[in-house]
Write a structure and sequence with these properties.
2 copies of one chain form a homodimer. Chain A is built from 5 helices and 13 strands. With 275 residues, chain A is of the alpha+beta class. Helix content of chain A is 20%, strand content 37%. The interface between A and B is large, with 53 and 53 residues. The structure holds a DNA duplex (27 and 27 nucleotides).
Chain lengths: 275, 275
DNA sequence: CTAATAGTGTCTATTAGACAGTATGTT
DNA sequence: AACATACTGTCTAATAGACACTATTAG
């Protein structure tokens, strides 16, 4: 190996082809909540988790759905910037909650060549998206999410199509409950994106109890019942109203707005209290 | 753009140079705990967090300390496998707790070329390492770790050398307490590794309260006082013994072993209860 | 009036914090 | 005996769970 006298000299002679190189992408799990309206005018609408998928119009995985994503430009872009660029392209918004989720790197996750992907979770209130979505993009509502014997079954709907997949979770670290994921059934989603979807939803579920992450999916003004319904759909369980109100009391601020016209007592609207 | 009839045809004609490529590495923050023995034979030894650093003998950053790491072989290795390979090389052990921490990707973090690094946290009881360390590797004890006005000051020692650095934390996400890190002062550590060290320690600190992560750093048999001391050094605060014992009671199992010879009442040894 | 949800008061059960006290080894 | 830590009992404070009750609207 050649010897250099200083770092400058070393760098001037550095051969970038010395190590094999690869491509990187970011994939973004953009999550929001939707209302499933009821027929009965009195009943309140149920909440569902929604995620944005894009129909691929090119190979590989042509005609399958995938998460919005894009290749990293290694010369001038960080992963965060790349994720923001993709989000801007899909939603026309710049100020969206964004968090690095996990770097997915199965060797054959992309049939073209080795592509490592840093996945991000993004949260938005989808009613804030005033522009129309790109023509290949569509919101899917998660209508079923259940875990039985370490197998997770997920069903999603847009207005035309139902997607179903299942993932087997295998415990690989008892001390910290780390699981590895194996896709059991999946006919509609490209790459390893079912794993990204599951691990993103689990991330939100974990964080909802010890952070204020939920407010990134809420409109500016909301009732406590609505907020509770969002907690319930993310946690996958019913909560008791008095306890819930006690816990979030110091995170929200009462306004003088009311939500009326619902066939029952109107609710006071609150907003997120930024301390 | 050329049209293909099916995925197979597309893949056969795929040009891997279509997107710019880059290199990836894994860097490993290997964490353990040490005893700082007291002069007084009665006093119990204080615990310190220890991390493994390696002295670089090549450019760039020649003669600086860095985390053990290595380039990913994109043809046949996952990031996890790469991390395990590095750990095996440094510790001669294969069954070490390992967890992906974060993917660091500042554009100029490596002066050679664009190198994105997926950092891992690894935990071990360093007394289990029966072989000698590689000649460039050394355990550093963290002797100071304090945060004042969002600046974190860290001091580390091996037997010859003291390393000091400081990092400024800037809140970038109020809802989830996300911070960006800026290295303020650092003369001894290569790359962006000060950031990796801080974010790894914070990860452990977060997880110690809701997982059993701590037992990856403990010997097979330990007293509850020792265990408490490890919690205290990781959390950076004193705990009350009765409360601590209540909380960890169902995570540990009493053995019939005792720890004697300490100039005070001997302690019962416990082991981790895997349920 | 009725159906439906909004919102609160209060009792109980569980968990966390604090402190004082007893136990038991080494020198 | 003196010191130092190991370990436990118990009181109190805070938090969580449960349920019953009152309030208020559209139709």
């Amino acid at each position: 190996m050649k010897k250099y006298n200083n770092e400058k000299e070393f760098l001037e002679n550095y051969d970038v082809t010395k190590f094999d190189r690869l491509s990187m992408t970011t994939d973004i799990l953009l999550v929001s909540v939707s209302n499933k309206d009821s027929i009965n005018y009195r009943k309140t609408s149920k909440k569902m988790i929604s995620i944005l998928l894009v129909k691929r119009d090119e190979f590989p995985f042509k005609d399958k759905w995938c998460l919005p994503g894009g290749f990293l430009n290694p010369k001038k872009e960080t992963l965060d910037e790349c994720a923001k660029r993709v989000l801007k392209k899909e939603t026309n918004l710049s100020n969206i909650y964004l968090e690095q989720l996990y770097t997915f790197d199965d060797i054959d996750r992309d049939p073209r060549t080795r592509v490592v992907s840093s996945a991000y979770v993004a949260l938005v209130d989808k009613n804030k998206l005033i522009y129309e979505l790109n023509k290949n993009a569509s919101w899917f509502d998660i209508t079923e999410f259940k875990e039985i014997d370490n197998i997770v079954y997920i069903t999603m709907n847009n207005n035309n199509e139902t997607i179903h997949f299942s993932i087997k979770k295998t415990l690989i670290q008892k001390t910290t409950n780390q699981y590895s994921f194996l896709i059991l059934k999946n006919e509609s989603i490209a790459f390893d994106h079912p794993k990204v979807i599951l691990s993103g939803i689990e991330r939100i579920r974990n964080k909802i109890n010890y952070t204020d992450i939920v407010f990134n999916m809420m409109p500016k003004y909301f009732s406590l019942s609505e907020l509770q319904a969002v907690y319930e759909v993310i946690l996958g369980e019913k909560l008791l109203a008095p306890a819930f109100r006690r816990i979030i009391a110091n995170k929200v601020e009462k306004t003088d707005k009311m939500l009326t016209g619902k066939g029952h007592r109107p609710s006071v609207l609150f907003k997120y209290k930024e301390t």
